Amino acid sequence: MKCHTDNSAASARRTLLSSVFGLLIAACLMPGCDTADPTMLPPPPHPKLPDPDSVDAMMNTPFIVPPVLDPVVYLAKEVDIPPNEQVVGVVIGETVRAYLISALKHMQSHVVNENRGDFPVCVTYCDRTDCVRVMGTDKGQTLTVQTGGFQNGEMLLRLDDTMYPQNSAEVPLRDVEYTRTTWGEWLEAHPSTTVYLGYRRDDLLKR
């Protein structure tokens, strides 16, 4: 009888386990049970940031840099500039001015706004595309052009809270004629010129 009792108990346990297992399988087969609880999923990975050393990482970089306003300029006799130094030359009325390309390459001086004189003028230079653009507005108006960063490798200009590619025809200013040449050639043609040295001032001023 004892052996019969043990066999019956074992059989009962097997039956109970089978029932429980069956219930678990049935529960997992219920609609929605094959999808994990979203509250238990691991957090999504952080988006991969571009490699800061890659070219693509710098193709679209929005930032605002204030312009150079009414810069300090020097007479030709006050400076000692190599004749082959590249310049942007502008003649507006009686004002004759040269801007060193090397000075405009600096991040803080990609945009130079001149609001003195009869014809306000804005000189812009993109060091990535080696592009110069000079623009102006009417006498008495104030230029407020800023550097706006870069988009697709081209410098952006910010004016009245709007961004424009440097070469955009939509910039609400008129283009001003300029000459891109060497300092030697510019000085020979315009002995009375003044010149903007930017951050290179200490290297080029006569001692």
Write the layout of secondary structure elements.
Blueprint: H1 2-28, E1 61-65, E2 68-69, E3 74-75, E4 86-92, E5 95-100, H2 101-104, E6 111-114, E7 121-126, E8 131-136, E9 146-151, E10 154-159, E11 162-165, E12 174-175, E13 179-182, H3 183-189, E14 194-196, H4 201-204
Parallel strand pairs: 2-6, 5-14
Antiparallel strand pairs: 1-9, 3-14, 4-5, 4-13, 6-7, 7-8, 8-12, 9-10, 10-11
Q: First CA to last CA: what distance?
A: 121 Å
Helix content: 10-25%
Give me the Rg, rounded: 36 Å
Number of alpha- plus pi-helical segments: 4
Largest sheet: 5 strands, mixed
What structural class should be given to the helix and strand makeup? alpha+beta
Q: Name the strands of the widest sheet in spatial order.
A: 2-6-7-8-12
Q: In terms of per-residue confidence, which ranges show pLDDT below 50 for 5 or more consecutive residues?
A: 1-7, 23-58
Total beta strands:
14
Mean pLDDT: 78
Question: What number of domains?
Answer: 2
How do the helices and strands follow one another from N- to C-terminus? Answer: HEEEEEHEEEEEEEEHEH
Strand content: 25-35%
**Cα shape:** globular
